[in-house]
Amino acid sequence: MLPEEAPIKTISSREVYRNNWSRVREDVIERRGGVRGIYGVLDKEPACILIPLEHTPQGDFITLVHQFRYTVQGSYFELPQGGWEDPDADVEEMARGELREETGLRAGRITRIGQNWIAYGAMRQEHNVYLCEDLTQGESDLEPEEDGLTVHRVSVEEFERMLLDGRVRDNCTLAAWGTYLVWKRLGGSDR
């Protein structure tokens, strides 16, 4: 945030819903001109999104997951991602755990390349972007909420086509890939 006074101040806040993964609060706010309103906020613990990338003589490959997303009543491809319901969780440990849980992959090298807010117009949750390399395959350990999740290894070229043809519609996946491309162009090393 720029060093200026916030144009909106919180008058009061109350939690209206809570479950194991998130909290919803309703804030009474006041804008600079004195106009009051209501702001609904979804609060979630920090999460991570993973870019499992392999460099082979045949080309570069990325591992995606495909799963049903209830909120949009559709199934899509996306990068593995998730979080733990622990505000004090070690983020790199969480990243390694989510990678193993969803894909069965273990990363010999993991690099945090960015941190983004997810849908910050309505939600307060950080997404830590990790590049995962030197991958070895093990067993996955899906949670009940991930029922039906499948794992897919695709070429980077195919993945980038998927970003444009509608098979990938997750904005976090797109943001993470964009973060990776900029990181790499500005001197990040993934080899």
From TrEMBL:
Domain called Nudix hydrolase: residue spans: 44-176
Keyword Mitochondrion appears in the UniProt entry: no
Keyword Hydrolase: yes
Highest taxon listed in the record's lineage: Bacteria
Required cofactor(s): Mg(2+)
Record InterPro entries: NUDIX_hydrolase-like_dom_sf (IPR015797), NUDIX_hydrolase_dom (IPR000086)
Key words, A-Z: Hydrolase
Pfam families found in the cross-reference section: NUDIX
Catalytically driven reaction(s): GDP-alpha-D-mannose + H2O = alpha-D-mannose 1-phosphate + GMP + 2 H(+)
Family: Belongs to the Nudix hydrolase family. NudK subfamily.
Protein name from the UniProt record: GDP-mannose pyrophosphatase
Originating species: Terriglobus aquaticus
Lineage: Bacteria, Pseudomonadati, Acidobacteriota, Terriglobia, Terriglobales
